[in-house]
Amino acid sequence: MPELPDVETFKRYFDASSLHQRIGHVDVRDAYILKGISARELARGLKGRRFKSTHRHGKHLFVRANSHLWLRLHFGMTGSLHYFKHEKQAPKHTRVLFVFANACCLAFEDQRKFGEIGLIENVNEFLEKRALGPDALDITLSQFTEILGKHRGSVKSILLNQKLIAGIGNIYADEILFRTRLHPATQISALKAKTVSKLFRATRYILKKAIEAKPDMDRMPKSWLLPHRGKGGKCPRCGHELKSATIGGRTAWFCVHCQRQTS
Ligand SMILES: [Zn+2]
What are the C-alpha distances in Å from 201 to residues 79, 98, 145, 187, 236? Predict the structure, then answer.
C-alpha cells in the first residue's frame, strides 16, 4: 500500500516524465476511481493544458494544471504511475490514461481500484476538508511533541492517524517503532520527552531512507524490520522470532525482545 515514501517516488517520477507537455486527451477507462468529477469533466478540464508542478502532502499527490486547477491523485492500495511511448503499451489495469500531444502517455494503474482521481481548485481547502494533519516530513519536533501530548492511545495508532500526521502507513509505522525500540501498543501518555524526540528522529530517518531506496523492498537495509516482516521472520537485531498483533486495527509486526512495552 503506497505510503509517503512511495508517493514521493511517484511525485519524482511524474516530475521527470510528465511536466510541461501539452495534454492531447484524457482517456478514462474506468470511471470508478474518479471522485467528484465525471470522465467528461476530467477530460475537458485538462485537454490542451500542461502539468506545471507537483506537490505531495502525506499520501496525496497534487499536480497543478493552472492557478485554479489541480489534478489530485491518491494511490489507494495498488495505484501506480507508468510513462511510456505509445498508447498500446498501457498496462493491464490502467484506469486513466493521460495522452500527451507527442503521443507519449502517463497511465494511472490501479488493480484494486481503491485509488482516487479528482480535480480541485485549491489544495489547502482540500487538505482542510479532509482534516489532514501536517506532512510527516514537514513537521517540526515541537509540533510532533504537541500532537502526541494532546492525544491518547497506542503509539502505533497515533502514527497511523492521518488527521494527526499525514503520510505514515502500516509498514513504515512498524519500522519507525522498531528503530525506536518501542512496542506498538505502548500508550502515548507513557512516553518521556526523550523518547518522543527519539521517535521523531526515527520517523524522519526511516521515511527519508525509504525514499532513497525508491522504495524498493530489495534495497531496504537488512538491519530493518521490513525485509524480515512476516510469519517465521527473525529480528535482525537479536534473532528472536518476530510477532504480530492487531493494534489500531492493523497488523503490527515487532520483536517482543527488543521492543518492550514500557507501561
Ligand atoms: Zn529483537
Answer: 29, 39, 12, 19, 20
Q: Is the pLDDT of residue 138 over 70?
A: yes
187 Cα to the center of ligand 1, angstroms: 20
Decide if pLDDT at 85 tops 70: yes
Q: What is the pLDDT of residue 44?
A: 97
Quickly count: other Cβ atoms within 10 Å of residue 111's Cβ: 15
Report how far ligand 1's centroid is from the alpha carbon of 258 (Å): 4
Span from the CA of 150 to the centroid of ligand 1 (angstroms): 30
- 119 strand-pairing partners: 71
C-alpha distances in Å from residue 258, one per residue of 10, 117, 118, 168: 34, 41, 44, 22
> What is the 34 CA–ligand 1 centroid distance (Å)?
44
Q: Which residue has the cell 521492543?
A: 259
Phi then psi dihedrals of residue 107, to 5 deg:
-105, 140
Average pLDDT over residues 91-102: 97
CA separation for the pair 136, 252 (Å, rounded): 20
